[in-house]
Specification:
about 450 residues, two-stranded antiparallel ribbon, Fumarase C, Chain B, domain 1, Fumarase C, Chain A, domain 2, about 5% strand, single chain, mainly alpha
């Protein structure tokens, strides 16, 4: 079939392979998004009398057929197509005749790409936010269940002060909740309609961009048509930057769990089904899911840096360099969603060993508490610090349970205030629901169906 830019010559095979790269395979991730955007564009063209009612109905039926074929693994993109956009248009021409050749009126592949990636991004962020909310809730439930179980607090990896399992888990819940706020802020930024910018300078047609925004569930139009093109890669990098924060949080949690589930610590135990084995050592049960979560954090961070380096210092308008940002963008998003699900599974099945935790309370862990008791009796802190430091052998045995209960200020072991995090999650959940409902309602109104935009298969 023809390329969208068909000329009176054929491209050299090496140049074709180099310029297409893996883009045509990656576009398999974007087919539902592209079809939804194309349907909105066709309906708008129908409203300004560029497409007849008959043409629009043919195109809608054809686009729904492509979505069905794609979900069943029957819709393929060939190297000769260059990308999914060409493959869709070629298929529409087969299914709908001349109507398929009219759908690109007033549209460039530039704003077509940006629009389908925008729809994909919004849906992916909603899934990531949902998975993040589930993990945060799981962490809070875990924290509340074990809030009264002492756990040695550490600085420089040395025993430091009394802490609790609840405080440890609650810390990651609050951190992740803040990460999710950042992701949501990113979602609000990217949730605007780029369609109608064409190649970045508009077209001499009365395109109704507000109409297509409403049809696709965007609350507003991305106004300046040059900015639409300049936002390609930029918006992807903003998304990856926010996901990088999730990766940083989960990598630290994974490292803690790897460390504290070592036999030498034994604070936690990972169920066997979450571990893998060794090819040579029969006894091994390896926390590979946690180790790969650590590395996944680096993959997300690397994807963010890769996209920014691709778009850095490009001139305004479209440049083919943008194509190279698609693969790291999709990779980073898929990785973020995966590790959220992996960590939720891990926390939900994590076992706590109370005896090992109590055994970790050596007498010196109570040194600061002893110094503060002297302060309460009238000593200066420096005098008390010196007195305790010179007599660590006289600290004696202390009750870890009493130690964590003695901390009563907000955010401490005796008063962790998990309710504050739950309140924050509740507010965020309401905001997410507004965008999710707007998207799903618009897509259903446009297509007549509940369309799954993000499919479980990660096409590479």
């Amino acid at each position: 079939m023809a390329k969208l830019w068909e000329k009176d010559y054929s491209t050299d095979k090496l140049i074709e392979e180099f310029t297409v790269g893996r883009d045509y395979r990656l576009d398999m991730n974007l087919i539902p998004s592209d079809c939804i955007a194309s349907m909105a564009h066709a309906r708008m063209l129908n409203s300004i009398d560029i497409l007849t009612d008959t043409d629009y109905n043919k195109l809608k039926k054809g686009l729904l057929q492509i979505i069905d074929d794609h979900s069943e693994g029957k819709f393929l993109i060939k190297l000769s197509d260059e990308d999914g956009h060409t493959a869709i248009e070629n298929r529409l021409s087969e299914l709908c005749g001349d109507a398929g050749k009219r759908i690109h009126t007033g549209r460039s592949r530039n704003d077509q790409v940006v629009t389908c990636v925008r729809i994909f991004s919004r849906s992916m962020l909603l899934e990531i936010l949902s998975a993040g909310m589930v993990l945060t809730e799981t962490l809070l439930t875990f924290a509340e269940k074990y809030k009264d179980i002492p756990m040695p607090g550490r600085t420089h990896m040395q025993t430091a002060m009394p802490s609790s399992v609840g405080l440890w888990a609650g810390a990651f819940a609050e951190e992740l909740a803040d990460d999710l706020k950042m992701v949501f802020n990113t979602l609000e930024i990217i949730n605007q309609n780029p369609l109608g910018a064409a190649a970045g300078y508009g077209v001499p047609l009365p395109l109704n961009r507000e109409m297509t925004a409403e049809l696709m569930g965007f609350p507003k139009v991305q106004n300046n048509v040059i900015y639409v093109n300049n936002s390609r890669g930029k918006f992807e990098s903003i998304i990856l930057d926010s996901l990088d924060q999730i990766g940083l949080t989960l990598s630290k949690m994974a490292q803690d769990l790897i460390l504290f589930s070592l036999p030498e610590f034994g604070y936690f135990k990972l169920p066997d089904e979450l571990c893998t084995g060794s090819s040579i050592m029969p006894q091994k049960k390896n926390p590979d899911g946690l180790e790969l979560t650590r590395s996944a954090s680096a993959v997300i961070s690397g994807a963010s840096a890769e996209v920014k380096n691709i778009i850095r210092s490009l001139p305004s308008g479209y440049n083919r360099d943008f194509q190279a940002a698609k693969e790291p963008f999709i990779r980073g998003n898929r990785m973020a969603l995966t590790i959220l699900n992996v960590m939720e599974l891990t926390v939900s099945k994590l076992q706590v060993n109370k005896d090992k935790l109590i055994d970790g309370f050596t007498s010196d862990i109570h040194a600061t508490d002893a110094a503060l008791e002297l302060v309460a009796s009238g000593s200066t802190f420096r005098e008390a610090y010196k007195e305790v430091g010179l007599n660590l052998d006289k600290l004696g045995d202390r009750d870890p349970y009493k130690a964590i209960k003695s901390r009563t200020h907000s955010g401490s072991t005796g008063n962790p205030r998990f309710d504050l995090c739950r309140q924050s999650l509740s507010v965020l959940k309401e905001k997410i629901e507004i965008i999710s409902t707007a998207q799903n309602s618009a897509v259903k109104e446009l297509t007549g169906r509940d369309i799954k935009i993000i499919l479980p298969v990660d096409y590479r």
